[in-house]
Amino acid sequence: MKSVCDTCGLDHDGELFELAYLRPDAVVAMDDESRAARVRESNDICIIDDSRFFLRGTLPLPVHGRDDVYMLGVWVEVSATSFARIHELWREPAQADEPPFEATLANDVRNHPGSLGDAAALQLTGPKTRPSVFAVDPAHPLAIEQREGISFHRATGYTYPGSV
After folding, report:
1. Is 162 part of any domain?
2. Structural domains in the chain (count)
3. Is residue 164 part of a domain?
4. CA end-to-end span of the chain, whole Å?
5. Fewer CB within 10 Å, N- or C-terminus of the chain?
6. Strand, coil or helix: what is 11?
7. How far apart (Å, rounded) are the C-alpha atoms in residues 25 and 91?
């Protein structure tokens, strides 16, 4: 599906290609030898030195004029206590009933410099889906975008207008 963009006037493919981080930034910064010695990881969980605990989640951003939501794939860091509780609930069908967990963003999100370490909430959603991530500070640009949505132009390139 093609759609003429209100922002730039170009035809954008109707599919949204969502930005996703494959690892927490702390792991990306390591050399291969350190990573092999210090990190245990899967597609959804990462542990550094048996003392730092990370989970992969999706940060939803509504897209103006569309029913589908842009899902930004990010990692968050949680406490050992939260990680243990999440592990207990990992396969539970009713895990979404658990209150959100305190977390911090583990990626410096593109177009949101300085977001690494920002407060977030991690909400479990179900055993077959990645948890949802929400910016906690209502004045943070990510929280504003979660609340107010983003343009289709921004979703297709995840850039601010004029920066393409």
Report:
1. no
2. 1
3. no
4. 21
5. N
6. strand
7. 27
What predicted TM-score, i.e. pTM, was given to this entire model? 0.85
**Token duo for residue 81:** 């206590």
| Closest-CA residue to 95 (of 128, 67, 62) | 128
> Does residue 95 fall inside a structural domain?
yes
pLDDT digit of tens for each residue in the chain (164 aa)?
445 556 566 555 555 567 889 999 999 999 999 999 999 999 999 999 999 999 999 999 998 888 888 899 999 999 999 999 999 999 999 999 999 999 999 999 887 888 999 999 999 999 999 999 999 999 988 999 999 998 877 777 644 433 33
Residue of 164, 130, 121, 162 lying closest to 56 (CA atoms): 130
Residue 64 placed within a domain: yes
Domain holding 26, by residue range, is 2-157
Cα separation, 92 vs 110, in Å, equals 33
Cα–Cα distance measured from residue 163 to residue 157, given in angstroms and rounded to the nearest whole number:
10
